[in-house]
Amino acid sequence: MITNPANTNWNDNRRRGRYGVAFVRSLCAQAGVGFIETSPDEDTDAIDAMTKFTRGSVPVQVKCTGQFKVGEGNATLDLDPGWVAKWSAEHVAPYVILVKVPSAVPDWLDHGAGDRTLHRALALARRSRRLLRTSCGWRGVTRSVPACDVAALLQRTSWTLTVGGNDERADLWEHLDSGASLYLPHRLNLGSFVWSDVLERIGAVLRKPASEVLRDIELGWYDITRFRVDSDGLGTQTVPLDAAATVVNSAFGMLRAAATTARQPRQAIGQNYSKIGDELARQARLAHTEPGSFVFPVLMRVGEPSTEDHPSLEGLDEVTPESSERRIVRTLAQALQAFDRHVVQPATDPNMESLLPVIYAGGAKEIFSQLLNAMKQPAVDWVETSFAWAAEERTPTDLPEQLTFPVEAQALVERAVKVLAEPSAEPIRVITGPIVQIRHLPGEPFGEIAVQSPNPRNFKVGRIEMRVRADQLGEIHQWMDSGTTVVVEGIVEKRPNRAARLRDLAVPRDLGGLIEG
User: What superkingdom does the record give (predicted)?
Assistant: First the structure.
């Protein structure tokens, strides 16, 4: 069974994309049909390959997913409007091929099936006709719901697992306060009677409608940033179209910049955006707008971080690292919080000294230039960001919930952007992140800690090790337990096949304390 990729630059999405195309190629080979894959540098028409028949060729677009399972019902795949526009110019309407694989990568192939390798995959094809639409559907397919996501909601809302962890088809959960009990099947299909019954039974205990319970389950893995503007002078719950377009573009620009500074704080990015950060930022989703002036919710799905292997040693204490997606949203939140505290609230002209805590928190020129673009819209009176944190990942207690930037602060933002654009005399040598490991042997005057830091080469969570005074370990333990982001200044030295290390003795500081001044 293959679990981790041999090349760590291949995340699950890339593996899924390559497998989908390879699976369709194998089906064409068995059918005696030519399969000519589009070269990556020629992929301008949203066509993955051409299938070559005797009388002609047919273009295909392949999408591979682990979300659906074969059964009663339908599957709908949303199509990129840009693809649809390009396909409308094709002489032959393309086929959309949906390749279904298990959600877990190791389950795609079974290498232990006697003298065979079994592919646990299925391909469904549908032709996109001349009247092209932005969705494509298949019958006989249903979307499965991970039972673990429902179980996570039950744990968060005071349910207790009483019978489970075996080969039975369902686990028994009880809610002690109400006396209610619930059998949670291991297999759940969206829209089925069983699924509806589970939602209604949970909702009855929590006193919520089933639709709200479903939303709680779906959003349990998402950090949500709500970008809100006040410009509804007509009282119609609308916003000028150009203002809305600017706010959406600014939201992505701020998140993209935070994805780069989350990997390494800097005062300006220029053209040096992180490719890994860009790929993570593209995972963000825009949800339906919400009432309340005008609200654009941006969702970022957090996940289990892919960590590097480290040996377990005596005197070692460690916690689960922060996910890469959470690090991006946290960086944006703390950068805006620091900017509000050190620039907007004092209402004095910012300089490099007053902006240092902002830079340490992940604030860069590009974040605030995007904020400025939104504030400059004639109909906008203020820009607000609020944050709701995914319940499935530990959340530090000192993160902001809401920050408002009035249009009167526009001149301050503009001045800060100009200061951050000025060349720095010295590069900023600062490490930020949560503490994920502490090691200390009794009686020793120093201890060892590891601060989480992104691996510069791949999507794995890395770390930087450093030596600290033993008399600071009590405070450091509190920071690690609460998930507090710390700041450490110094020069980092790389070591072959080992975690990087700070050259000198480290003196970690609480980033929240720096933000508050």
Answer: Bacteria
